[in-house]
Amino acid sequence: MIKSGLAEKLKPLSGKVLFDTRDEHDIDSFHAQYEVKEELGRGLTSIVCKCVDRFTDEKYAVKIIDLNQNCDLDVEDSIVSEVSALSRLPQHPNVTALIKVFSTNANVYIVLELAPNGELFDYVNQFAVLSEKVAANLFRQLLLGLHHLHYHDIVHRDIKMENVLMNEKLGIKLTDFGFAKRLEPGAALHDLCGTLSYIAPEMIRSELGSNLAGYGKEVDMWACGVLLYTLLMGQPPFHHPTKLSLMRQIQECRYDRKSDTWLRLSDSVRGLIAGLLQVDVKKRITAEQALQHPWIKHDDFRDVTRHTTGKRKFRQVVYLALFVVSIRSRARATLISSNGGNQLQLIREHNAMPYHIKEVRAVMDDIAFTIYGHWVQREDPTRRAMMFRHRRRNRSHSRTFSLNE
């Protein structure tokens, strides 16, 4: 059973962060020390909530895993991996700190440092793309946190925007160590895990049996390349509805290098992305090398937003004026063609539900795509749907992948 085996596997942590209390109401239990507040997020196997220390009023995040609903060895291994990696890792400003772990017969409570501003994914979702200046600041912090992990021989294996949290002043923290492994010198890993669009080619080859040597820390650097590309381009470099086609794209490193958005980027950051998205592991740059790259070290970037803000605002004003004129002219045309119908009722319908009118909807879509054409392209229905999405979807937690699914 997971409940008894988990305590044994976590036993080496006793006296550090682990509190093994069988009774939920014990004086040393989680609920005796912390008060659970609102929910922050939800995955396949856990719920993350804000919690407050009853004695100090300090705010933390707690990951709660219900062992009755998750009696699975994969869940057990994920808990052990996360707790083991974080408990052995010295604290770093760009890595989420582990505070305490409470293990009971029913639940595991992992108390973590709180990042109050949510995921990097949510921050990026507010914009079409980030300027190079903002992206460089965020990416440098990610590299610092990842270099700290690699220096202590830990591979994260699930670097993605949802696993990067944000605090005040655009500070970031790397989190979710469910797939993390400590990698001894000379050792290698072989299992396919993480988030499919971020996994490295050698991880796929290892699963297919064509890479018997396995893989190492380099998979995190590939994922960093995917993340940086997404920050600057507004879309991931590798995306396809079918899993096999997506993996083929990754193995062949086929991504958009011809669009206007890509060509507007500085040569420096395009070189950095190329160095990270390198199929040959020996040629792929490390976290330490990336931190020395001119784009990171010397702010060698093109701040597109700073130079084009005035022009973009003027364009938006012009398009807004054209939009208003178009609506009025189409409304007049509709009223004239009504042949003496209830004109007042038609005007009210135009005012209350303009997007429900086919002609008006066409104008609105056309202007929207003109303004955001660098992000949402007409020929891609997936990105078009994303632009007009108003409700946030529940994103599933990362999981291991099987090629037989």
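(the above was protein one; protein two follows)
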Amino acid sequence: MGVIKVYVAGPLNGPDAPSYIENLSKMLKVARDIRRLGFAVFVPGQDFLLGLIDGHFDYSDYFHNGIEWLKVSDILYVIDLSPGVKQEMRVAMKLRIPIAHSIEDLLNKAKDLKKNE
């Protein structure tokens, strides 16, 4: 299996740009902590940086890009719920990708994956 790939999901959208940046910061901090545990991580909010480069901020485009990464992830890590996160969870359940809600839960699910290799 190699390194376990974790898709980090959480609310991004808010009433204003500072809320979005605060939410993205929270996701990146959680992803950093998960990465320090030895996992590979994907944060869908990183598409924001692409938007800064090309001025393109299309939610649908970014969401669908993230879903493609979710499809190849080993575990979905959920920080908090939002409509987008609920969609990501439905995709994960359909594909039988384990969903973790805490670091302890993530470690247990990772152990199960390694055991079932």
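Reviewer note on protein two: The mean pLDDT is 92.
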